[in-house]
Amino acid sequence: MSDATALSDDAPANGPKPLHGGPLVLLTIAVAFSTFMEILDMTIVNVAVPHIAGSLGVSPSEGTWAISSYALASAIMQPLTGWLAKRFGEVRTFCVSVGLFVVFSMLCGLATSMPTLVIFRLLQGAGSGPMVALSLSLLLSSYPKTKQGIALAMWAMTVVVAPIFGPILGGYLTDNFSWPWIFYINVPVGAAAGVVTWSILRHRETKITRAPIDTVGLALLVIGVGSLQFMLDNGNDHDWFASPMILTLGLIALVALVFLVIWELTAKHPVVDLSLFTRRNFAVGVTALSLGMLAFFGINVVFPLWLQTTLGYTATWAGLATAPVGILAFLVSPFIGKNIQRLELRAVVTFAFIVFAFTAFWFSEFNSGASFATLVLPRFIMGIAIACFFIPLNQIFLSGLNPDQVAGASGLANFCRTLASSVSTAVTVTLWQHRTESHHASLTEYVTHASPATTAFTQQLTSLGIPGKPGLAVVDQLVTREAATLAVNDVFWGCALLFLSLIPILWLAKPPFGNAGGAAAH
Fold it and tell me: What are the Major facilitator superfamily (MFS) profile domain coordinates in residue numbering (predicted)?
């Protein structure tokens, strides 16, 4: 047993005593809901983009700025969490972050033009950036040592399940009310969460360090991450590096981020504590988490897109087909959290990657005639892997860290996870499109007058009153549908292989893993 697990519940080595009873339950609910709403906002807007674009008089491609502006600002702020928490205190920073999220959510709903909405989304993302990382730090510091696994499980459920339910809730609110309600819904929930958190934790503020601002590091971070995020969000629409703009953004991001790493490793008061990567378990855990999220998010991106663009699903039904993945994740997470000290965490994550790979291979066998029930079953089974993936990896990368390092470590890990999700979206959508074109070209080689199947099918169309060019257009639609299905199968296959390739990396982590944020060996 590590030193961390031997600590008394009521006498932690650092910080105030843990909470118990009603205050702990209220805090958990408040923090969980605030985290849920913040992460929900990353995906809830997706299905509402056509409505937003039509309402504000812009094209759908311009409407996507409502998504990318939020992601860009949030990605920049996430690695700053550690510095902000030390400079202003974790409780104060979290509550101010929740307050800003609420205010700018209201302003987003009131926006009457696209530029105004983009500005408010930028400010909303910047304000809420530290929320997710600090929510984990506050929960861990408030729970008794022996129950920190439960805190980690509760936090993990909100972080993983929220993006899944975003499109469903966004579609429902947009279809039955209007698009501003996807922002208004944040206001009462966020305000209540902020008030409850402040009332419980205002006397439990963390130690404040008046460190000077690392202006060079901050500038490099904003330029590098901003350029990279903008490139990832818009690369596919501009044919990637064939576009001078995307190429320029890529070069700026590369230069700025390289200089950021060099500067932060030598700065006396770095704005991002990259020295955390010198810790073995942090480096291994964050690498496995980020690459695992890259594959998992890739599946979550192309699956609903394929359903809507190829199989003719509505946004609501695509969301319903995606959502079952959260059921087992919700049910299994408390069990993993409760028993996290008794489990071999590397084996648990290995099991998760095997289940992810198995279900991804399963998906890769589907054809365009797959029924709703057939599509839902592997999504349901995949849910058990979420709990076995996310919770143990967070425990692994936080092991061995001091309590005052948890906020910075969680913020840096959350940034890597968010960046991996952005990379995954860009790569998988581009790969899907390119593979669709390749399969389309291959399939059309068999659509000739010399093919008995083609001749029989066109004759059947003629008998149905669809002769000549209209009939050939129907054939082309069918070929495109099958090409897109074969392409999505390729993406699932690639994700499965990535999951399996990550298993050896896990075993580079060194136990014991102790309690998250405890002084365990490393």
Answer: 27-514
- Cα 189 to its chain centre, rounded Å, is 21
Could you list the beta-strand ranges (E) of 294-409: none
pLDDT at 459 over 70: no
Residue 411 corresponds to which amino acid?
Answer: G
Q: What is the pLDDT of residues 249-298, one digit of tens each?
A: 999 999 998 998 888 888 887 878 888 888 899 999 999 999 998 898 88
Residue whose structure tokens are 């490139």: 231
Rg (CA), the chain: 24
- Which CATH class for the 19-204 domain? mainly alpha
* Encoded tokens for 133: 């990382």
DSSP 107-136: HHHH--SHHHHHHHHHHHHHHHTTHHHHHH
- Residue 79 tokens read as 């690695």
Rounded Cα–Cα distance for residues 183 and 173 (Å): 10
* 431: nearest Cα among 479, 389, 484: 484
Asked whether residue 446 carries a pLDDT value surpassing 80, the answer given is no
Bond into 504 cis (ω within 30): no
Give residue 521's pLDDT.
Answer: 35
CATH of 288-522, one of 1.10.287.110, 1.10.238.10, 1.10.3980.10, 1.20.1250.20: 1.20.1250.20
d(CA 260, CA 252): 12
- In angstroms, the CA 484 to CA 491 distance is 11
With tokens 């993936």, the residue in question is 389
The pTM of this model reads 0.79
In this structure, what are the phi and psi dihedrals at residue 277, rounded to the nearest 5 degrees?
-75, -10
